[in-house]
Amino acid sequence: MPVKHVLSLDGGGSHLLIQLSVLACLEKDTGTSSYDLFDMMAGSSSGGLITCLIMGRRMRAQDIIHCIECNQLLVRIMTRNRLNWLLNKLQIRPKYQGKPKTLAMRQELGNLRLSSLDKRILIPCFNLNRDQLEVFTNDTRPDFLLSEIADACTAAPSYYPAVQMEDGDWRIDGGVGMNNPGLYSYLHAKQYWHERDIKVLSIGSGWRSFAINGIKARKYGGLQWSAKGIASIILREKMMTNVKMTSEMLGNRLLYINDCLKNFDMPDNMDSANNPVLLKKALHIGKQWYANQRQQIEQWLNN
Fold it and tell me: Which residue would you say has higher pLDDT here, 174 or 85?
């Protein structure tokens, strides 16, 4: 009985370019689009945006890269709140405006809805009204617009404002609770294809590294820990723990590709690749990752 292949994409802001570069290399090697290679896609945060574009518009990864390079997709969605510069500096307002991102999502995804999809998707968001993580799949009701799902799943706190969707509820980036959807996507796929073998290719976007002086940290209060990025440390460790658990449970049914951005001299803040030089660097990192894992990817696909 044929194996079902699942693609899982971590969140990572503008570092989605690394993931797209890995997928573009895979498409070039196989001569097959990502849409045709996978039976299901799961994506958190920026990975959710990629999922909506590939599964909704059947775009190749290389086409999305072209949209970012030539049609300035990242530039369009990363419009700063310049009039509130001081408030942004004090982190009293989101760094970027919400309306340009909403408009860009509508332009890219149009009137596509969950019911229009021929393949399975899975995208987490956090519902502020219900105070819980929720996961959008093809079976979710109401039949949401993909543009709204893409807008909500990329609403990273402090970077973008929360997004109100058709049902009236407000949502933010699901990466706050599930930045790596690999295990959840496997369980969902197994529930849907319970008699099939499921294999998951999980691609990260690079993780951040932190160097904190222990002697100084003894005196830190909430403000100092916040300034040092304690929230990012917690999210990273939750993600890495989840990856280890997923790997132990799935064994060779899972192939996870990721690395520390510091190893590639890449700034690790979420929006660093919104820059022509760093954009090309992110694409180059993706090619390096693919080259390093090429044999394992071929084995994962063929076995």
Answer: 174
Helices (H), the chain: 16-30, 34-37, 46-57, 61-69, 73-77, 85-89, 99-109, 146-153, 182-192, 214-217, 222-227, 230-250, 276-302
> Which distant-in-sequence residues (6+ apart) come within 8 Å of 220 by Cβ?
228
Q: What is the pLDDT of residues 194-225, one digit of tens each?
A: 989 999 999 999 888 888 888 988 888 988 88
Q: From 17, 61, 16, 9, select the one nearest 35 (Cα to Cα).
A: 61
> What's the number of CA atoms in the CB half-sphere (13 Å) around residue 120?
21
The overall pTM is greater than 0.90: yes
Residue 70 CA from chain centroid, whole number: 21
Cβ pair 240, 45 in contact under 8 A: no
More confident position, 50 or 276: 50
- Output the pLDDT for position 250: 93
Q: In which region does residue 41 sit, left (phi positive, over 0), alpha (psi from -120 to 50) or beta (all else)?
A: beta
Task: For residue 120, give both structure tokens.
Answer: 């399975």
Residue 236 contacts residue 208 (beta carbons within 8 Å): yes
Which residues are within 8 A (CB) of 179 and not within 5 positions of it... i.e. 6 or more apart?
10, 11, 44, 45, 235, 238, 239
Report in angstroms the alpha-carbon separations of 233 from 166, 168, 209, 236, 238.
Answer: 33, 32, 8, 5, 9
Q: How far is CA 278 from the centre of its chain?
A: 18
CA distance 61 to 21: 7
Q: Alpha-carbon torsion 143, 16, 39, 242, what sign? A: negative
- Give the pLDDT band (50/70/90) at residue 156: very high
Cis upstream peptide for 276 (omega within 30°): no
Instruction: Please answer whether residues 109 and 149 qualify as being in contact, where contact means their C-beta atoms are separated by less than 8 angstroms.
Output: no
Question: Amino acid identity of 123?
Answer: I
Query: How far apart (Å, rounded) are the C-alpha atoms in residues 21 and 17?
Result: 6
Whole-number Å distance between alpha carbons of 159 and 162: 10
